[in-house]
Amino acid sequence: MPHTQDRRWSASFKGWLTVAVIEKDGRRITRTAEARTKKRGTPQGSPLSPLLANLYFRRFLLAWRKHGHQDQLDAHIVNYADDFVICCRPGSSETAMARMQTLMNRLGLEVNDTKTRLARVPEDSVTFLGYTIGRFYGKGGQAFLGTRPSKKAVRRLLRQVHDRTTRQWYPDSPENTVAVINRFLRGWCGYFDQGPVVETYNLIRQYVDRRLRHWLVQRTGARGRGFNRYSQEYLHETLGLYRLPRARADVPRAKA
Fold it and tell me: Which helix (H) or strand (E) holds 179?
């Protein structure tokens, strides 16, 4: 646990640990303070969580190297906050798993067993930071080891678009709705631009176009799917809907 003699920092630190979490579901508002009552963990969504995760996890990384596990097993850790994978050669994964568990226990840290497993790539696939890592197939059925946006990451984006084009947003203007959707798309594509992403972009484009047309039709009380009334040119040229790249060469990172 980090120590400080700065009272203002300590008060702010304590405030983040004990603050109640407020959630709104329609007209219902709930307040929970599980972290404060149990004196364990941090409130869900607290900006303190990633800070503490990095502070604690740094102890694990330093101990992993200091005790020789990295060199002895040729096992290298890649982490982002408290999410991590241990990359090692075949035959040493079980030992690396056991040593990781032992070291975590000594440091007073807990591992989420439901999210922890051994995977042999490329026979198995691994999802890390939104990317699925494993064996994929290119043109002509040629196999390769690479990455692709995970199904969960794609579903999360589509859910955002769906939720922003529901009945409650009918009073909003098409221009403002498109501006919000554009922020979703640009941010998502800016992160998920590695590997064979064009196929995924195509799926997202089709969904967004269809969903936006549906919203435009429904908010006016009209019928139909809106293909004739709201053309591609109208969506992209008039409303300014973000154009997802259609080819690998069009992906910004591909030109760097």
Answer: helix 174-191
CA distance linking residue 174 with residue 180, whole number of Å: 10
DSSP string of 97-125? HHHHHHHHHHTT----GGG-----TTTS-
Rounded distance, CA 24 to CA 32, Å?
12
**For 122-139, what is each residue's pLDDT tens digit?**
899 999 999 999 998 888
Q: Which residues pair with residue 21 across a beta bridge?
A: 32
Q: Is 144 helix (H, G, I), strand (E, B) or coil?
A: strand
Q: What confidence tens digit (pLDDT) does each residue in 8-41 have?
A: 877 777 777 776 666 666 566 666 666 556 656 6
Which residues have C-beta within 8 Å of that of residue 148, sequence separation ≥ 6?
131, 132, 136, 195, 196, 197, 200
The secondary element (H helix, E strand) that includes residue 19 is: none
Classify the phi-psi angles of 81: left when phi > 0, otherwise alpha if psi is within -120 to 50, otherwise beta.
left
